[in-house]
Amino acid sequence: xxxxxxxxxxxxxxxxxxxxxxxxxxxxxxxxxxxxxxxxxxxxxxxxxxxxxxxxxxxxxxxxxxxxxxxxxxxxxxxxxxxxxxxxxxxxxxxxxxxxxxxxxxxxxxxxxxxxxxxxxxxxxxxxxxxxxxxxxxxxxxxxxxxxxxxxxxxxxxxxxxxxxxxxxxxxxxxxxxxxxxxxxxxxxxxxxxxxxxxxxxxxxxxxxxxxxxxxxxxxxxxxxxxxxxxxxxxxxxxxxxxxxxxxxxxxxxxxxxxxxxxxxxxxxxxxxxxxxxxxxxxxxxxxxxxxxxxxxxxxxx
Length: 302
Known about the structure:
Elements lengths: L10 H8 L5 H12 L9 E4 L2 E2 L9 E2 L2 E5 L4 E7 L6 H14 L14 E7 L11 E7 L6 E12 L13 H11 L14 H9 L7 H39 L1 H16 L5 H8 L3 H16 L2
């Protein structure tokens, strides 16, 4: 009987596979492949609670998919992102900076700070001008590119740029990327991957038959959420583009762009929360709330 594997790109499945207490060997193999060119640099790590509480009142909480401390003291935070929302690149930097800063208690010395690596895996292209699948960023001098510090490193993996087929897989990096991209389309562990114990373990954890009823319900809800949001954003952009083009011809390009943005937000009112609509469209929270109030008033008018 063929196996059914959950989609590693959903946040619930990604956390289940890479962030569970029994997933240490999986995470070590994955990080050694992606971060350290398949060298066994990481021998051990501790998987942490991915919730990042701020130390300063008024600073936002943040939630990561996976967070771990390596044996050398480095912190690795990992996020799997399916939807390309407005301001996402700033959120990555915000989470990395917070993970770096919250290491210290009040009055502790800055020398106690350990480096942070923020590993972000996207199901969309972030850097359209580059063909790199894996990109790495650090603080550097602007002109001669000398390093200022490696205390915060941003690593991005863009899955749509990885196009190799199963027969073309050679390296461990390629096998992990293929797992992330295509595991839910397979019915058995491919022969090319069976020689890697951590990959075998990842496939075992990803078997849908091993999930509890509650986990299956959560997974289904997350998949529906992503599907509905993706379709809602696509439809809103299409409708907004038409409206924006119409307005643009009548009132000028600037007003047309504004009309397009407002129309996108209106299309999303019944699907997304105010904060997400704000992040997606670039409108302020107050502007989105005003649109929601207008929509409610129109619905209540006989």
